[in-house]
Predict the 3D structure of the following.
Amino acid sequence: MGSFSKTLQQTKTEPEIESPLTVAATQPEQNPPALWEDPRPDLQDDHRLWQRFLKLACNLPDEKEAFKLVGVLNGIRAEGTQLVKGNNGFVLRPIIDPTTGWVSQKEYEYMRDKYMKPHFDSIKVLLQVLKQESWHW
């Protein structure tokens, strides 16, 4: 048997391997939710609050600041952060649970300090607006 025939014979018995591009092209397209939509609708206790909080962030007068802030807030919510009532309004509280939230308080604090602190003044204003609006719900 010649080398070409031998190669042809081997090709027929080897399993067909799909390229990742072929697999991806055959999968249904999954679009992530818009940044202003709550990425964690499974956390029902504050889902409605997050929907409003993210929309408020999108509507800041400075569009560049709004885009950055809503991205940060969306990310911390996706990881597992809740809006809970504090003594003077709403506060952001991490869910410390590797299966549904943050791995540790330390991880949350690192991300908070790195990404949220630059937007602290805007977040504070948005939380106050949320507090005022929540009396009407």
In short: The radius of gyration is 24 Å. The CA atoms of residues 31 and 39 lie 12 Å apart.
